[in-house]
Write a structure and sequence with these properties.
The structure holds three protein chains of three kinds.
Chain A lengths: L5 H43 L5 H5 L12 H33 L3 H14 L3 H13 L7 H26 L2 H9 L4 H29 L3 H6 L17 H9 L4 H33 L5
Chain B lengths: L1 H7 L1 H20 L8 E5 L4 H15 L3 E4 L3 H9 L5 E4 L5 H6 L2 E16 L9 E2 L1 H8 L9 H6 L11 E5 L4 H13 L1 H6 L12 E3 L1 H11 L3 E6 H6 L6 E3 L5 E2 L3 H9 L25 E9 L5 H17 L1 H6 L7 H11 L3 E2 L2 E2 L7
Parallel strand pairs in B: 1-2, 1-3, 5-9, 6-7, 6-8
Antiparallel strand pairs in B: 3-11, 4-8, 4-11, 9-10, 12-13
Helix pairs in contact in B: 6-8
Chain C lengths: L7 H8 L2 H39 L2 H4 L3 E2 L4 E2 L2 H32 L2 H16 L2 H27 L22 H26 L2 H9 L4 H30 L2 H6 L17 H8 L8 H33 L1
Antiparallel strand pairs in C: 1-2
């Protein structure tokens, strides 16, 4: 092997140094992330476990002193987040597919992409305002459906953006191969491209669900909240974030404990969803992740 | 690759099946609300007692109350928009507005606003302030705790030289309205620079959400001062300071001092039952007392719901004293309750007054 | 090369197949829906906010006094707070998020990769109100006790800008622009990290292999070969983060101090458009100036996002062309 000149050797060591240094910084970054996570989770669980009991799941919200729980808030959240995701995620996926596979660089697609990014940055409170104007005020009442609609509008741009980004990374070779074998355009997308990108799309949907599961402001203006048990979508509906907001700021220890428990429940719920979907996808495809 | 794709295809189908099942379950589970259920929104201050009364009332009548503490301003907006059955506001609504929006106003319960402080090594309950000093603190003119104006009236306290951090309500709030009305009436500079209302332009300090947000801000910041409802101070074990009342006496806030102020209120001449209880005469009167109000529509499209609201409050007037005591609120004097009931008789629907309800 | 088995006439027929047309139309409709939604939001905001612009003209944007009692509204404090907190948050979160993503894809031992990845995503599962509570009850006192006094002392030599801006000299109240930026940074961190990780993971192995084959270090392979190829998608990750930072409401309400005045230091209590709307909307009645100014603020926020995105697009287009 040829001897390295001093200059070359110096360059080599410098490059190694840069690599090591950057690697070290990245480890540090990951460390910071984990420490933060640890701090927040510690606060969540140390405060939330104390309030955890069966009554949290079986009793609805009640006055301090009575054995209140969070049952109605839990169910209300599941209903509104579920409905919001069911409306927003498929729409978002369709937009993402349109941008990546059909529209691509056309004029209209650029406009849609741009508009989607603006919606992405929309403060959730403004979405709440908008839905209040179109679905609450004219209809004369707060409703769980308006809440779900607001959540759907928040979820849709997130799913659209992540879907497009991931689809763009699917190698063109996949598409060309499918076409070469005689597939129609929509078959190429449905049967080849989407499955290949499923993991990344799933991440996007889960990020969106995580986001809307914890949203308070838009629900405040659309579904108002409900201290009683109700699964009626045309009436005000309880939700965990609103329950937390009300209880955390109250002076009653039982309510504050329930607020922490509620926060812990949302976090655990979203995490379980996350893990569950990852494992089922891994089991199906035989490899981890996307 | 194609084999993988064929296998992976099953996942989206599973997801679709799951979502279909979920939506069917959702539709089947939708339960209609009970006919006598009533919805209210507004002031955060009385939220615990309204909810408490609501639960006790549900046990005897079956009608449930859903009360959302959005803030007094929100309560007014929601009843104006007729999106709830009643609105709740810590501060009375102007007469012209009640007229224009066809609302009836009556008081529900009485409360007081107190001030809490966090000064290291100083017992807050022994601190004395006047309304004028409060005004100057909240416009930023007095910035340090050992300012001569403060030490002059507190000869027995050793006040440190630390900055004063005034805390206020970030959300639109009747508590703010009560507090700023009082301070504006006794401090000209506060009236000029900030004024009174549910939301005002604070010249200094920080805003926190809710009564408890302000209480927490004070607890966490050395040198902090903030205004909260008495119930919150009592529940949190905070130590409110003494204020000078109209008679010039420094008194500590307590239920007797609130009752003393309330007893001087001029209910007979109060328009729309908005009797002022601030800065009242009386040696033992606390200067910042107020009732909190309920607003119902005069022209509801469903007058039965309004009637349910009235029945709920009537029941609470008669049966709610024990709960009020426990939660640190003050019931309306019986004469005032009767005045309220008389106001209810002015609600007419279909030619008949909504109160008293026809017994059948 | 063999001639295709399918005759030319059927190729055209294949393109016009019903499934394809329905497919295209439904996708196009989804895209159109997005535009319609934004258009509706803008119309409602603008219509509702017109009263504010009529009353104050452009002074609404440059005005610094926000006074509900005298009904004089100026949006500059809220706009300033929004831009400053979002910019600072992005500045802090992006390198850390990127570092985490690189760590997860390159450096992390295989066994730890999945659990650590899940751990980072867990940060995204925490509800925003919890961040607000954590910020208010844990971070703010910490800032007030230790960080703010230290900052004040260390930077006291920087001369103030006239009578209005004092850099790091401020009473240590714990909440304010700086604390809010930190909380926002923590909140957008998992979004940036998770999306960047997914983008890096999905990038073709070929790019890295080629770079390694030429003797590149891990860092050089990443910055020289992979990133240039996926730059657009990485930008997407940043914008997800920015979107959250600009739009965050509940957490900001807890930690920004809610003072609709121009900040006089980097640690001063301030306000963002989202926090002002959240605090004031419940009391704003239809038809009043109070509601109009909030809708006008919403309109301004959309315009600000528009501006930021337009600039980013110019960047991206230059990148693509070079």
């Amino acid at each position: 092997m040829k001897e390295l000149s001093p200059a070359a050797r110096a360059r080599y060591f410098r490059r190694q140094l840069v690599d090591r240094l950057m690697g070290g910084l990245c480890v540090l970054a990951a460390g910071i992330g984990l420490v933060l996570l640890g701090l927040i989770l510690w606060m969540l669980f140390s405060n939330g476990i104390g309030g955890l009991s069966l009554s949290v799941f079986t009793n609805s919200m009640a006055q301090p002193g009575a054995a209140g729980g969070l049952a109605n808030a839990i169910v209300g959240s599941i209903i509104q987040v579920g409905l919001g995701a069911m409306i927003g995620a498929p729409l978002g996926m369709m937009v993402g597919v349109y941008l990546s596979e059909v529209g691509k660089d056309s004029r209209f697609a650029s406009v849609v992409r741009f508009v989607n990014d603006i919606l992405l940055s929309a403060p959730s409170v403004l979405i709440g305002l908008f839905v209040y104007q179109i679905a609450v005020s004219p209809l004369g009442g707060f409703s769980g459906f308006a809440g779900a609609l607001a959540l759907a509008l928040i979820a849709m741009p997130i799913v659209a953006r992540t879907t497009e980004d991931i689809l763009r990374l699917v190698p063109q070779a996949y598409r060309d191969g499918a076409v070469a074998l005689g597939s129609r355009e929509n078959e190429v997308v449905r049967k080849v491209v989407l499955p290949a990108a499923f993991g990344g799309i799933l991440t996007g949907v889960l990020l969106a669900v995580a986001r809307i599961a914890g949203e308070t402001a838009p629900l405040l203006f659309t579904s108002l909240g409900n201290t009683n048990w109700s699964t009626d979508l045309t009436q005000p509906m309880a939700s965990l974030p609103i329950a937390i907001y009300r209880y955390a700021g109250s002076p009653y220890p039982e309510w504050v404990a329930l607020a922490w428990t509620g926060a812990m429940l949302i976090t655990v719920g979203v995490l379980s969803l996350n893990i569950l979907s990852r494992f089922s996808h891994a089991a199906i495809s035989g490899k981890q992740g996307g | 690759m194609l084999i993988q794709c064929g296998v992976i295809q099953q996942a989206p189908i599973r997801v679709a099946a799951l979502t279909t099942a979920m939506s069917i379950a959702l539709l089947l589970s939708a339960a209609p609300a009970l006919a006598q259920d009533i919805t209210g929104a507004g002031a955060t201050f009385p939220a615990p007692i309204y909810s408490s009364w609501g639960e006790d009332y549900a046990k005897v009548s079956g009608g449930r109350l859903n009360y959302q503490a959005l803030g007094s301003g929100a309560g007014v907006t929601q009843i104006v928009n007729r999106t709830v059955d009643f609105g709740a506001s810590d501060s009375p609504v102007a007469a012209e507005k009640l007229e224009k929006e066809k609302l009836l106003q009556f008081p529900a319960v009485i409360g007081a606003v107190v001030l809490v402080v966090n000064i290291p090594s100083v017992d807050g309950t022994k601190l004395r302030l006047t309304g004028e000093l409060l005004g100057e603190i909240y416009v930023g003119r007095i910035r340090l705790w050992n300012d001569p104006k403060i030490t002059a009236i507190n000869p027995g306290l050793k006040l440190p030289q630390i900055p004063i951090s005034p805390a206020y309500r970030a959300d639109s709030s009747g508590t703010t309205s009560i507090f700023t009305k009082y301070v504006s009436s006794v401090s000209p500079i506060f009236k000029e620079r900030t004024g009174a209302g549910n939301s005002v332009a604070w010249r200094t300090g920080l805003g926190a959400p809710g009564n408890a947000g302000v209480a927490a801000a004070v607890k966490n910041i050395k040198g902090g001062i903030g205004y909260v409802e008495f119930a919150y101070a009592a529940e949190n074990g905070m130590q409110p300071l003494m204020l000078a009342n109209k008679d010039g006496k420094f008194i500590s806030p307590s239920v007797p001092s609130f009752l003393a102020a309330a007893s001087h209120a001029d209910w007979a001449n109060a328009k729309n039952m908005a009797a002022t209880m601030q800065n009242m005469a009386g040696e033992t009167s606390w200067p910042i007392v107020s009732s909190t109000y309920i607003l119902v529509p005069r022209d509801s499209t469903d007058p039965v719901r309004t009637q349910h609201v009235l029945q709920f409050f009537d029941w609470s007037y008669r049966n709610g004293a024990a709960t009020a005591d426990r939660l640190h609120y003050i019931m309306l004097p019986p004469e005032v309750q009767d005045l309220a009931r008389r106001q209810w008789t002015t609600l007419i629907a279909g030619g008949k007054p909504l109160w008293p309800p026809a017994t059948n | 090369m063999t001639t295709p088995a399918v005759p030319d006439e059927t190729i055209g027929a294949r393109r016009l197949h019903f499934g394809d047309t329905a497919f295209r139309i439904s996708l196009l409709a989804a895209g159109a829906l997005v535009v319609i939604v934004l258009f509706s939001i803008l119309v409602i905001m603008f219509n509702g906010g017109k009263l504010a612009f009529d009353t104050f003209g452009l002074g609404f944007i440059t005005g610094t006094e926000w006074n509900p009692v005298t009904q004089i509204y100026g949006a500059l404090p809220a706009i300033t707070g929004t831009i400053v907190t979002a910019a600072l948050a992005l500045l802090i979160a992006w390198p850390i998020g990127f570092g985490i993503a690189f760590f997860l894809t390159e450096i992390c031992p295989d066994r730890l990769r999945a659990p650590l990845g899940v751990a980072i995503e867990l940060l995204a599962a925490v509800p925003s109100i919890v961040y607000g509570m954590w910020g208010f009850f844990v971070l703010a006192p910490f800032m007030s006790e230790y960080v703010q006094p230290w900052l004040t002392q260390t930077f006291i030599w920087i001369p103030p800008i006239g009578d209005s801006f004092f850099w790091f000299t401020a009473p240590p109240i714990g909440v304010g622009l700086l604390t809010a930026s930190l909380i926002l940074a923590v909140m957008i961190l998992p979004f940036i990290a998770a999306t960047t990780r997914d983008v890096l993971r999905s990038s073709p192995q070929l790019l890295k292999d080629g770079a390694y084959a030429m003797g590149a270090t891990r860092w050089e392979a990443l910055t020289g070969a992979v990133i240039p190829a996926v730059r657009g998608s990485l930008f997407g990750a940043v914008f997800l983060g920015l979107g959250r930072a600009l739009g965050e409401t509940m957490a900001v309400v807890f930690v920004i101090g809610n003072a609709t005045r121009m900040p006089d230091s980097i640690m001063a209590p301030s306000a963002t458009i989202a926090s002002v709307v959240a605090n004031s909307f419940p009391e704003a009645e239809p038809g009043t100036l109070d509601l109009a100014v909030l809708l006008a603020l919403g309109f301004i926020l959309f315009v600000v996002s528009f501006g930021v995105l337009a600039i980013a697009r110019v960047f991206l287009r230059q990148e693509r062309m070079s």
